[in-house]
Every structure is written in C-alpha cells, then in structure tokens.
Amino acid sequence: MPELPEVEVVRSGLEPAVTGATVRRVEVLDERSLRRHDGPAEDFVERLAGARLTTPRRRGKFLWVPVEAADEAVVVHLGMSGQVLLRDPAAARDRLTRIVLDLDAPGHGPVRVDFVDQRIFGSMALDALVPAADHPEQLLPSQVAHIARDPVDPLFDDDLFLRRLAKRDTGIKRALLDQTLISGVGNIYADEALWASRIHYDQPTRTLSRPRAKTLLAEVRLVLGRALAEGGTSFDAQYVNVNGASGYFSHSLNAYGQHGRPCPRCGRPIRREHFMNRGSHFCPWCQRIRVR
Hints:
This protein is an alpha+beta fold. 24% of the residues lie in helices and 23% in strands. It has 2 domains: 138 residues, N-terminal domain of MutM-like DNA repair proteins, CATH 3.20.190; 125 residues, Helicase, Ruva Protein, domain 3, CATH 1.10.8.50. The strands form 3 sheets. A 5-stranded antiparallel beta sheet has the order 2-3-4-8-9. Strands 1-6-7-5 form a 4-stranded antiparallel beta sheet, covered by helices on one side. Strands 10-11 form a two-stranded antiparallel ribbon. α1 crosses α6, α3 crosses α6 and α5 crosses α6.
C-alpha cells in the first residue's frame, strides 16, 4: 500500500497542474471508485463540473484538493493500487481507469487527470471540510479529521506523540501503524525505522524508554525523508508518480523485503515473521526485545 512518501510525491506532482485549474468535465467509468462519496455518481459529477480547484494537500496517506469558494474538497485515497496520472487529453486511457477529470490548467492548458486502480480499493469523493481539532484555522475533509498529523508535518507535536506512545500497551510496530497516533507510516517504513533504531517490532511500548522512543521518531523522519528524496518505494508498476515513473527507494532498503539476506549491520540473516496479515522484517541479533 502506498505510504506517506508515495502520496506526497503524487501530491507535489499534481500541484503545478491542478492548482487554480477548472474542472471542465467529469467521467465516472466505475462507480465502485466512489464508495467513500456520499451520493450517487451523478452527484459527484454535477458538483465537481465547473469547480475551480486550489492547492492539493495531504495528511498521512490521504490526499485532497480543496474546491475554491466551497467548504468541500476532492478526497483521494490510493488504497492498495490506486494511481493518479496526469495525461494529455488525447492520450490513450489505461484499461483500469476508473474516473477521469478534464481540466483547464493555468499555464498548462487542457490536462487530463486519470484515477487508475487495479484492485479498486482506492477511491475519490467530494467531502465537507471541517476545522482541525488542534488548529481550528486549518480545514480538513471530514474523512481525514480522525487521522493524526504525520512526522514531517511542521505542526507535529513530538512531546504529545511521546506522551501518548508511553501510555499505549501494545507492540511498538502496532503503535507506528496506528494512524490515530501517527499517520503516514506503513509496513515498509516501520520496518526500516525499527531496524535503524535497533528495536524489535514487538517491543512493548510500555518498556520503551523515552530516549529510545525519541531515537525511533528521529529514524522515522530520516527514512521518510530519504524515501521522499528518491521518489518513494516501488516494487512493481502499481506504485508510480503522476508521470508514471517509479520510485527508487527500494534500492536503499535495509530490512523490508530483505529476508534471507545478510543484515547490513551485523551480517546475520534478516528474518521475516507473520504480523497483522502481512510480514515484519528484522534482524533477530540487532533487534532483540529488551526489558528496558
């Protein structure tokens, strides 16, 4: 599933073409991609056609484009395999295209935005904007309001996160994947940050000292920053930016997907264990569960 870096790469790629653009036409090819929209496809089309869009925004894995002079936004969730692609209006469509937006973009002219989704777990929706709980002057889609800030957000509160983490009674990786505690961190980057911090994925949060928790948060930021710089992580053709280019961070992974290979730090084999219907990758020598 795309994580924070992949979604941010899409957001930044959309920004030049979408900001200030007017929606000329909307075509819904598969209504299943509107599962999070409160209303039929006709409602989505009628409300969005003719609207002027503003700067795309993101929190965690959620992306949205506010509609100018309206308290609503187009919310995009990529799900497992969703892609948002910028195309020339005359370009052929991908056979898995689910929704099409034709835009008049300032400085770009006619632009087509294709929402492509193989597994149809992703979605688009028009959603009401509501004040953020911690900063009411900021507006968020109601579908995103429960999501915590992510660690690359300038308003992320480190002390609040560390206090809330200390009160949890769970494994540390489960905590990192809890989007109400910290958003944008998924399986890949959790494994990488835990490896860098020398913390076992099942280390109980109540036993994690504040210094080690601070180190982990710093490593989360570092791994997300490196992935952003390299365009996100790509393992197949599904994970691409708005121009269809794949990310390159997969070449820099130390733990995730490396099971059976030597740990870059100690040389012992990386192990993969079943975890929450997925896998956790770690070094059993470097990442031991500690009492304190």
